[in-house]
Amino acid sequence: DAGITQSPRYKITETGRQVTLMCHQTWSHSYMFWYRQDLGHGLRLIYYSAAADITDKGEVPDGYVVSRSKTENFPLTLESATRSQTSVYFCASSESETGNQPQHFGDGTRLSIL
Amino acid sequence: LAKTTQPISMDSYEGQEVNITCSHNNIATNDYITWYQQFPSQGPRFIIQGYKTKVTNEVASLFIPADRKSSTLSLPRVSLSDTAVYYCLVETAGNMLTFGGGTRLMVKP
Fold this sequence. Notes:
The structure holds two protein chains of two kinds.
Chain A: E1 4-7, E2 10-13, E3 19-25, E4 31-38, E5 42-51, E6 54-57, E7 64-66, E8 76-78, E9 87-94, E10 104-105, E11 109-113
Parallel strand pairs in A: 2-11
Antiparallel strand pairs in A: 1-3, 3-8, 4-5, 4-9, 5-6, 7-8, 9-10, 9-11
Chain B: E1 4-5, E2 9-13, E3 18-24, E4 33-38, E5 45-50, E6 53-56, E7 61-64, E8 70-75, E9 84-91, E10 97-99, E11 103-108
Parallel strand pairs in B: 2-11
Antiparallel strand pairs in B: 1-3, 3-8, 4-5, 4-9, 6-7, 7-8, 9-10, 9-11
């Protein structure tokens, strides 16, 4: 089935560890996005990508690294996890970087950092 | 400072019309306003999108005044299954995609 898949769905790790969240889409959308969702803050954009090998910062990029070697994949890495990065992370894809095309979201990764 | 704000919560009853307003005081000139619905443990799902005046689809209507500093999502005759969190999304003048804080809609029988 076409869609956008995030893995893992749940992850528990410890402070200081590296963790990578995976995102895969089958629509061949050019644009992909990573958001974090926290109580009281809604959804905030971490990074986005316009195409393979093109990425840019969003509102809250500190502590995160992204890559996009293939159009369909957009992994998000926390190089040294901190407790403040405990959150639900959503990946999305779209035909456009602007608000003019709907974004399609995965079902999220719930990340807990102890 | 660009702000995209929504009421935190709303209650309604089955069969009523619900209107949720989003204020976006720094929206980019040429971009659309988009609304999403989110259920627990799921990602947001697209509902409707518009640029100005009124847009209607099979599930909702979207009203946008001429100054585009706000938008109103209208859900006709809600049912229990419409209980969810609703988000507006706009691109601000700084080219940053910004979600509103979300409105938790509770539909009661």
